[in-house]
Amino acid sequence: MISVTDITISILYILLIVTIGLWIPKKKRESSSSEEYFLAGKNLKWPMIGLALFASNISCLHLVSLAQSGFDSGLLNGNFEWMAAFTLILLALFFIPFYIRSGISTLPDFLEKRYNRACRDWLAFVSILSAIVIHIAFSFLAGGIVLETLFGINMYVSIGLIALVTGLYTIIGGLRAVVVTETIQSIVLLAGALIITWFSWQKVGGWQPLTHVLSGEGEMNRLSMIRPIGDASGLSWIAVFLGYPVLGIWYWCADQTIVQRALGAKDENHAKTGAIFCGYIKLLPVFIFVMPGLFAYVLYKSGTLDISGLPMIQQGDHMVPDSKGIYTLMITQLLPKGLVGILIAALLSGLMSQIAGALNSISTLASYDIYKRIKPTATDKSLVTAGRWSAAIALAVSLLLLPLLNRYTSLFEGINDVIAHIAPPITCVFLTGIFWKKASAKSAQYTLWWGSLAGIVVFAASKLGGSHSFIGNIPFMMMAFYLFAGCLVFQVILSYCYPVVHTEQSKQLYWHSFAAPLRIPGWQGLANYKVLSGGLLLIMAVLYFLFR
């Protein structure tokens, strides 16, 4: 049972976040302007950008599902965290200069400047849909599972309450309220994760007892991040190497929900440094989100952690415990009273921050890319109003999707499976757009249309045919790469069939050489984006060598 003290801490935390979220827009007199509401007046500095990027990415879903993956397969899914550092460097070096200099408010706006209006419309539609499904609905699902397990409250009731609370300050306050609360929530989330990591590590007894249990007969190499080709997980080194960039470039470089924090930067240097700072923070989740699940597995094998309370599910010919609730069991069994409340606050931080970020991006897309097109003379006040209504509608739609998404055994795999079928055409047109001057508007338009249709068809075929079909047996990471390769070939062919006709704007939105981004001067000394990027790459290389 959760103590009164812990419940009180959780409630006080929620009230604090809501109070801050509602106070921020009142502090800024210009909060009714569209630029202030959607992009925080373009005045954000790098520490806030980095923490907000991290908070928009890490939700309750990650805390719950990464712990589950650590329990089920060890550190393997940590690749999604460490590889993110690589794509954040790509965001800083290659994408942000164009985003900031072109003065865009949304990424669909960038596609219109580089290609045409049809590309903008399609990306706006897909971005809103993906924000509802990936960033909101899946996060709600993970949060509902945790709160139901902890408090015994019906999952949909608890989700409804969180939706009401988060929607309140997000819809009223805009991006500044979102970023300020996300910064606080990032710190709380990291503190909570460090607490559960420390207590589970102490309970395990150190590195030697850990390796002793993991070296037992029949144990897979749970401490390895790199798996051989043909590994049953579907995440072999080749799948990660080829498939992750397709997912990661879309998610970190071309998804409005994430990139919007960088679009609100004070200047290009703050945007770049903020993105790289987030890359450094992304090295932590393997140790504080995934490893606790691995520690839980060791404690379970040694008889210290009781998982009898987990429901049983069918896996092949066997009934196995449903490990979705393993993080909740760790909180209730390993932590003393008082600290449980802090962990619940951390879980709520992850849940609320990602939902808040997604709602703000949806309102921005709906206002600038849909409403303003219908009403070109719309005032700032009407744009903000349209954004608020669109966020409220998106919130309602995401709640209706929950029963459908709850069918995935692993929520983390579920979310990446969906991304793998959405990302390929978008990643393709963004990469060709900034690196290849011959990429034409028509080729990008048709690649987005037909590539998205191919993703839907493949996704449906894999789900309807199941593991008995050819498509169903292809790991989702490899499928993402195959779809991307198909889109790339398709766009290259069409670019020669429909040759590019550049506008004055589009001429400025592609790199004339791969070295060009590195010639841009930055801050002096260690704060220079090239120095920071090199340091991050070096740390990644060392970590992969240690956990190979």
Name the descriptors:
20 helices; 548 residues; Solute:Na+ symporter, SSS family; Sodium/glucose cotransporter; D-glucose:sodium symporter activity; mainly alpha; Na/Glc_symporter_sf
What would you say this structure looks like, in words?
- The protein is mostly helical and 548 residues long.
- It has a single domain (4-514), classed as Sodium/glucose cotransporter (Up-down Bundle).
- It contains 20 helices and two strands.
- The protein has helices at residues 4-27, 34-39, 46-57, 60-73, 79-101, 107-114, 117-151, 155-204, 207-214, 237-253, 256-263, 268-281, 285-301, 326-334, 339-374, 380-405, 411-435, 441-465, 476-497, 529-546, and strands at 312-315, 318-321.
- A hairpin with a 2-residue loop joins strand 1 and strand 2.
- The two termini are 40 Å apart.
Question: Into how many domains do the coordinates divide?
Answer: 1
Radius of gyration: 23 Å
Biggest sheet features: 2 strands, antiparallel
CATH level 1 name? Mainly Alpha
- Judged by helices, strands and strand pairing, the structural class is mainly alpha
As laid out across the biggest beta sheet, the strand order is: 1-2
Number of contiguous helices? 20
Q: Could you give me the name of the CATH homologous superfamily? A: Sodium/glucose cotransporter
Categorize the overall geometry. globular
Based on the coordinates given, report the CATH architecture: Up-down Bundle
Strand content: under 5%
**What is the CATH topology assignment?**
Sodium/glucose cotransporter
Low-confidence stretches: none
Percentage of residues in helical conformation = over 70%
Tell me the distance between the termini: 40 Å
Order of helices and strands: HHHHHHHHHHHHHEEHHHHHHH
Overall number of strands: 2
Mean pLDDT: 84
Subcellular location: Membrane
Pfam families: SSF (PF00474)
Family: Belongs to the sodium:solute symporter (SSF) (TC 2.A.21) family.
Membrane topology: Multi-pass membrane protein
